[in-house]
């Protein structure tokens, strides 16, 4: 081999290795707690494809569904440790690090789906620095689903839930909002909801429309009430350490792709929810839509007075969200 050909070969190998290192450096393990086909997964898939296309394949978002990388808390911790680079995680999971997100659990913060979607840029702008300080880069929010009462009895007004045992998530705000309407909240882990309803430990609980079908909740809670008192929000985040390693043009591409994908979630979710509820109705469930929510809002108003002052920056965030038309 001539000196020239040896040098050329060495250069080619060096460029190949450099390319491989670059590709590996910009690969993100992206954690999702839902199965393939779920609107959140489909939006993440759209996001990953858009990022790959915009960066000519230099940034690869690898999706791990079904909690394969761990639960939501473990995934958030993994981002801080660097073992996971991103994910879509329920906002309340971040309350330990970013207490400001607790404002999203206040009852009737959002008027409807459109309002929750429109709040994304407002919330992102207000909370980005708070996430950054805790090792996360915030890409925005999307709707995981609205919480809806599911019960063994019909619910048409707050009067119907007085004295009834309500399964709640282990959150002071959620306990307080159901106490405010006269129910008797019982904190129970998610995995025990079906059995608790089946055995009469509780009379009702709240969850999302899709889960009403997926987890066969309609079998033990034949009455579904469309109230939308709290929206579960998915938080799109990546590890700050990984984000900081990216060139600025790749950061811009990821930001744009995330915003576009987040906008896809709500219409997909509405379609899936409608189909899910139709299927439960076909199997005997009763669906009731609360048209006048004001009695519920009035009774839950004290929860705002009690908790908003305890949440950093809540007053300004609430004002900004309510100003959205």
From TrEMBL:
Keyword terms, alphabetized: Periplasm, Signal, Transport
Location relative to the cell: Periplasm
UniProt family annotation: Belongs to the bacterial solute-binding protein 7 family.
Residues in the signal sequence: 1-23
Entry protein name: TRAP transporter substrate-binding protein
Keyword match Transport: yes
InterPro entries cross-referenced by the UniProt entry: DctP_fam, TRAP_DctP, TRAP_DctP_sf
Pfam families linked to this entry: DctP
Gene3D superfamilies from the UniProt entry: Bacterial extracellular solute-binding protein, family 7
UniProt superkingdom: Bacteria
């Amino acid at each position: 081999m001539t000196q020239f050909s040896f040098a050329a070969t060495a250069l080619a190998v060096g460029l190949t290795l450099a390319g491989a290192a670059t590709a590996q450096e910009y690969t993100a393990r992206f954690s999702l707690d839902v199965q393939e086909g779920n609107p959140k997964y489909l939006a993440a898939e759209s996001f990953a494809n858009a990022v790959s296309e915009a960066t000519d394949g230099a940034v690869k978002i690898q999706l791990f569904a079904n909690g394969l990388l761990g639960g939501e808390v473990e995934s958030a911790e993994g981002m801080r440790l660097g073992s996971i680079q991103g994910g879509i995680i329920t906002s309340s999971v971040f309350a330990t690090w970013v207490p400001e997100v607790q404002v999203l659990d206040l009852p009737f913060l959002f008027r409807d789906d459109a309002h929750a979607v429109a709040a994304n840029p407002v919330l992102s702008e207000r909370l980005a620095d708070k996430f950054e300080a805790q090792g996360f880069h915030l890409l925005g929010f999307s709707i995981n689903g609205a919480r809806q009462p599911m019960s063994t009895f019909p619910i048409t007004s707050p009067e119907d839930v007085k004295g009834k045992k309500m399964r709640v998530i282990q959150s002071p705000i959620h306990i307080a909002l159901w106490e405010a309407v006269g129910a008797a909240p019982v904190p129970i882990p998610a995995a025990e909801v079906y059995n608790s309803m089946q055995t009469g430990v509780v009379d009702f609980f709240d969850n999302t429309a899709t889960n009403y079908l997926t987890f066969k909740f309609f079998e033990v809670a034949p009455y579904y009430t469309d109230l939308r008192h709290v929206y579960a929000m998915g938080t799109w985040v990546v590890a700050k350490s990984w984000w900081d390693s990216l060139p600025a043009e790749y950061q811009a591409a990821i930001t744009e792709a995330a915003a576009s994908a987040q906008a896809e979630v709500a219409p997909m979710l509405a379609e899936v929810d409608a189909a899910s509820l139709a299927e439960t109705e076909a199997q005997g469930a009763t669906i009731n839509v609360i048209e006048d929510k004001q009695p519920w809002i009035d009774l839950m108003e004290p929860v705002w007075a009690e908790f908003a002052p305890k949440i950093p920056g809540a007053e300004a965030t609430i004002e900004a969200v309510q100003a959205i038309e």
